[in-house]
Amino acid sequence: MGGTKTAVAVVEHDGRVLVDRRWPTPSRMSPSEAVEQFAERWREVHAAAGYPRIAGLGLSVPGPVDPAGTILHRVFDWPAWHDVPLAALLSRHLGLPVRMDNDVNCCAIAETRWGAAAGSAHHVWLQVSTGVGGAIVINGNLYRGHRGMAGEIGHLTVKPNGRRCTCGRRGCVETLVSGPAIVRRYRNAGGIAKQAEEVFRAAELGDLRAQRLLISVGETLGGVVATIVNLLDPSLIVLGGGVMTSFGPYLDTVRRSAEGHIPERNGEGSGPLLCRTALGDRAALLGAAALIADNGGTR
With bands split at pLDDT 50, 70 and 90, how would you rate the model's confidence at 23? Predict the structure, then answer.
């Protein structure tokens, strides 16, 4: 369940997707209406898969979840979604056990189990999309922190007294590099766009405003990567989310910016391997499945 789209699938224990369906996420739908719609789509997918035996439902959501994986605390910009017992609501509707985690953690779980981070003990998932988030894997386990809030990379302060973020604070990373931030900054520079993809397309066609903006975004992301490396020393940072899907031409900007802020260590260079997701837009979906497949995935 994402900020802009929702997907439901039947997934085997080895990560194979038997059948899936996707639809836009209605932002003004109440939790009870969303549960009704989700249950209806789930039944359609289950029938299309030929009614296989289902072990349970894994659920990826775009907001913080309690440590037990039962309550969705909030979704920024969705005022009706506050401390929703979503797992219990769905479990009652479908008659299945339900495990829930936030979407960024689910992406990290999937990449660790089946994707670009398979075999890596220390890595970070960095997601840039409608929002910005992260997940930290240490010794093969997802690090959640004291309150389960570890990895809120999008709310690192990079510009004190800057633009107000959806979280209520000012100057967060998210206000500079997220998809909506890229569109807003491009418009402020005189460009015309409704989606970040249009800004990337304009840059490809030689629009200097778009090119300069994306270089600036890359430099900011490089500073974020350097902060992550200096604090955690991961071997790998996996980049995902809709913005990073289009960011290929500017990855070198991210690398150069990061390397300029990371000291060289023991002759091994100054930074970790940066790579894009191997699972694409299915990472969160597969991570949700992994919550059931091995009773919690990477934890």
Answer: confident
Residues 9/57, Cβ–Cβ less than 8 Å = no
Decide: pTM greater than 0.85.
yes
Domain 118-277 adopts which CATH fold? Nucleotidyltransferase; domain 5 (3.30.420)
Average pLDDT of the residues in 114-140: 94
Q: Which amino acid is at 57?
A: L
Average pLDDT over residues 91-98: 92
Query: How far apart are alpha carbons 154 and 76 in whole angstroms?
Result: 13
Q: Phi-psi region for residue 216, left (φ > 0), alpha (ψ -120 to 50) or beta?
A: alpha
| CATH class of segment(s) 5-106+282-293 | alpha beta
> Going along the chain, which residue ranges are E strands?
5-11, 17-24, 57-61, 72-74, 82-84, 98-102, 123-128, 132-138, 141-143, 236-240, 273-276
**Does residue 296 carry a pLDDT above 60?**
no
